[in-house]
Amino acid sequence: MAVRNYTIGMAGHIDHGKTSLTKALTNVDTDRLKEEKERNISIELGYAPLKIDDELHVSIIDVPGHERFIRQMIAGVAGIDLVILVIAADEGVMPQTKEHLEILSFLGIEKGIIAISKIDRVDAELLELAEEDIRDNLKGTVFESAPFVLVDSLSKKGLEELKQQIKKELEHKEMRDARGPFRLPIDQVFSVQGQGTVVRGTVYEGIVEKGSSLQVLPQGIPVKVRQIQVHHEQTEVAKAGQRAALNLGGISKQEITRGDVLVSSEHFLVTDTLDITTKFVGDLASPVKQRAPIKLHTGTTEVMGTIVFFDRNEVVEEDDEVVCQLRLDYPIVCKRGDRFILRRPTPVETIGGGWIIDPKGSKYRFGEDTIKMLMQKKEGTPNERILSILKEKALMTFEALLKFSSMDKDDLTAILNEEKGNTVFELASGEYALHSDFEYIKNRIEEKLREYHEEFSLRAGFNKAEIVHSFLNLYPKRLVEFVIEKLIEEGFLKRQEQYIQLATFSPHYPEKWSKRMEAVVIAIQKDEIEVQPFEQYMKSEKIPEQYKDDFKYYLIQARKAVALDENHLLSIETINKAADLLKSKTGEEFAVKDAKDVLGLSRKYLIPLLELFDALNLTKRVEDKRKWV
User: Fold this and answer.
1) Given 16, 339, 342, 421, which is the most exposed site by the fewest CB atoms within 10 A?
2) What is the DSSP string of 436-476?
3) Which sequence ranges are marked TM in the entry (predicted)?
4) With helix as H, strand as E and coil as C, how does 88-125 read?
5) Can you list the alpha helix ranges (DSSP code H) found in 509-622?
6) DSSP for 370-414?
7) Residue 176 falls within a domain, yes or no?
8) Residues 6+ apart with CB under 8 A from 242
C-alpha cells in the first residue's frame, strides 16, 4: 500500500502538557530555542515525526499556547488534518483553550481528539468532574462529539490508546491534493553554513522533487531545490501533507521571509483584494465597523488591511456568515477555498474567520446587488461543481459524473460540451479529465526528461514504463498513457523502442567528456580489427567508469560501432572495409583459411569477426564454409 502522509496539531492552553505529550509520543523535544528552555513555554512552532505504521506517517506540530504567540499558533494549525486538543485534568478548559477552539473552527478543522493530560495529578473523582466540565464547554463546537483519551506523559499512560485513536481518525481522512501545482507556505527561514538558504513548511498541495525549479511569491524570485529533508532525513521528494525543509539555490535568506509561498506554477494569484465569507465570534469586545483595520492570517501569512461591508456599517453580533471583502496593505498568495482568521489589532482579539470566495476581488457598489453576486460566487456554478469533481477524481466516465454531481443528464451534457476544448477533454475511452491535469502531467514529464537528458545525455531516453509508474500515486495509468501518446502524436515527445525522449533531444556526448570520447572512437578506428578491450580505451582517456555502459550502448545505437564480443567494439568503417576486401578476394564462398590469408588475422580476432559477419547477415555459414548473402 502507498504511504499516507498527514499533519496533526497539538493545541491547547499554556502549560497543559502539549510539548511533553509530543515528546512522549515521538521522543522528540520540540522546544528548541534557548528562550523556550529557560521560560518553559513554546514560542515557535515545533515539529516531530510520528510513524503509526508502515502505511501511515504523521507530522506533529506542537503549537504555542501562550496568548502572545497566537500568530505562530494560527500558522501552525493552518495546514493540519487533525487536531489533538490538550486539556490538563487539574485545570480544565481555560481562556486560551476557548480561543484555540474558535480558531480551529474558523479554519475548517473538523476532526479532533481531546487528550486529557496530567491524569496522575488528580484522583478518580476529580478526573470525572474534569471530563464533565470539558464536555459542557465543548457543546456547540466542532469538538462536541470528539473522542476523549486520558493520558499522562510522565507515566506513559494512555499513549498507545492515543496512537490508535489517531490512526482511527485518519483512516478515512482524504489526503491533501498531491496532483495539483506544488504550494508550500513558508513558516521558517534560516541559513546553514556551506548550504545556503533553507525554508520549512507544510506542503499544502502538490509534489516537489530534488532539482525542481520553483518560484518564491509574492516576490516572483525563481529558485532551484538543492536538497529536501522530511524530519531531518534526506529524500528525493516531498508530498502534500508532509512537513518539509527545502535547501534553495538562487536566493539569500534576506530575500525571503515567513509568510512567503513556494510554488511550482505561475497560476497562483498574487492579490490584495479578497472576496470572503466570514463568521464572527459571539462575544466581540466592541463592534467591527465598516473599513475597520484588521489583521488577516491565512496559511503562514499575516498582513494588515481593512474590512469592507456591502450590506451594513458594522457587526455587533452576528450568527450567520457574512459575505464581504478584505483590502490588504500588501499583496499575498492565495486561492479560492483557502481558510483564514481575522484578528483586531487593538484591542487584540480574534474576531472571526472563514474562507476565500474569490482571491481576485474588485471594487463593488454598496447594496443588495453586490450581496447577491457574492452569494452566487460563494455557492459556485454548476460548471464549477463538475470541475471540482474532476479535480478530486482525476478521471471519470459520464455515468460517474452524473452520479457524483446529481445533475440532469442534459445539463451535464451541455456543461461538458461547453467546457470541452477549454477546461475539460475527453479520452478515447469516453472518460473525462481536466486540461490542468493534462498540463501538469505534461510539465512534469518535460521536467523529468530535461533532467534525465542532462544527466544521461548518451542514453536514448527515459523508460516509458518508469515514467508512467512515477505518476500512479496521483493519476490513473490510462490517463498518464493517454497524455504520453498525445504528446508523441503532437510531436512534443519522440519514442525509440521502449524509451521516451523530448522531440528536441538527440543522444550526444556529455560536454565535459566529448573530446575524450571522440578520441576513443578515433583510437578504435585506428586499431581496426585488432582492437583493445573497450575498457582499456576508457582508461587511456581517463573517462569515468560510470559512463562505460552508456557510452558503449550509444556507439552501437548510433551505428558508430558494433560489438565484436562482450569486451570489444569494432568501428563500422573497419567492418565494411574488412568485408569489402574479403569479398573482392574470394568467390561466392570461402573457408576460414581463405579469410585468414586475405585478412592476415590470428584466430583470436578472425573467428569472432566471421561470426559477426553472420550476425550482421553479410554471410551465411554452410557446413565449414561461408557464403556471401
Assistant:
1) 421
2) HHHHHHHHHHHHHHHHHHHH-TTS--EEHHHHHHHTTTTS-
3) none
4) ECCCCCCHHHHHHHHHHHHCCCCCEEEEEECHHHCCHH
5) 514-527, 534-540, 548-557, 572-585, 592-599, 603-615
6) HHHHHHHHHH--HHHHHHHHHHHHS-EEHHHHHHHHT--HHHHHH
7) no
8) 5, 7, 57, 59, 202, 203, 230
> CB under 8 Å to 579, separation ≥6 — which residues?
613, 618
Q: What is the pLDDT of residue 31?
A: 46
pLDDT value of residue 46? 65
Tell me the CATH number at 367. Answer: 2.40.30.10
Query: Are residue 504 and residue 515 in the same domain, yes or no?
Result: no
Contacts of 106 (CB under 8 A, 6+ apart): 279, 339, 340, 341, 350, 352, 353, 354
Q: Are residues 612 and 480 in the same domain?
A: no
State the cell numbers at 422.
477549454
Lowest mean pLDDT: which of 22-31, 43-52, 372-381, 596-605?
A: 43-52
Contacts of 148 (CB under 8 A, 6+ apart): 113, 114, 116, 131, 134
Question: Do 9 and 115 share a domain, yes or no?
Answer: yes
Q: Are 373 and 386 in the same domain?
A: no
CATH number at residue 137: 3.40.50.300
Tens digit of each residue's pLDDT (9 = 90 or more) over 67-92: 554 565 565 555 678 888 888 888 88
C-alpha cell at 512: 565535459
Domain carrying residue 72? 4-170
Residue appearing with cell numbers 478521471: 395
389 and 487 share one domain:
yes
The answer to whether residue 350 sits within a structural domain is yes
Q: Is residue 315 part of a domain?
A: yes
- pLDDT one-digit tens code per residue, 93-149: 887 777 778 877 887 877 889 999 888 888 888 888 888 988 888 888 878 888 999
Q: Is the pLDDT assigned to residue 180 strictly greater than 80?
A: no
Question: What is the distance, to the nearest Å, from the Cα of residue 294 to the centroid of all Cα atoms in its chain?
Answer: 33
First to last CA, the chain: 56
Based on the fold, state whether residues 417 and 530 are members of the same structural domain.
no
Check if the beta carbon of residue 501 is closer than 8 Å to that of residue 494: yes
Q: Are the beta carbons of 423 and 435 closer than 8 angstroms?
A: yes
| pLDDT, average across residues 263-287 | 87
User: Are 20 and 120 in the same domain?
Assistant: yes
Percent of the chain with pLDDT over 70: 93
Q: Are the C-beta atoms of residues 344 and 99 closer than 8 Å to each other?
A: no
> In the chain, how many domains are there?
5
At residue 357, the 3 state secondary structure works out as strand
Burial class (CB in 10 A: 0-12, 13-18, 19+), 189: buried
Query: Residue 609 and residue 529: Cα distance in Å, rounded?
Result: 8
Handedness of CA 201, 207, 208, 209 (dihedral sign): positive
Sign of CA dihedral 308, 311, 317, 323: negative
Cα dihedral 478, 483, 486, 491 in deg (nearest 10): -140
CA 93 to chain centroid: 38
* 254 and 392 together in one domain: no
pLDDT tens sequence across 417-475: 988 878 999 988 889 999 989 999 999 899 889 888 887 877 788 999 999 998 888 89
Sequence-ordered list of residues with C-beta below 8 angstroms from that of 403, at least 6 positions apart, any chain: none
- Residue 41: its pLDDT value, please? 36
Q: Of 473, 488, 508, at which residue does a domain stop?
A: 508
C-alpha cell at 544: 569515468
Which of 377, 400, 424 finishes a domain? 377
d(CA 594, CA 625): 10
Highest mean pLDDT among 152-156, 236-240, 257-261, 605-609: 257-261
Determine the pLDDT at residue 1: 47
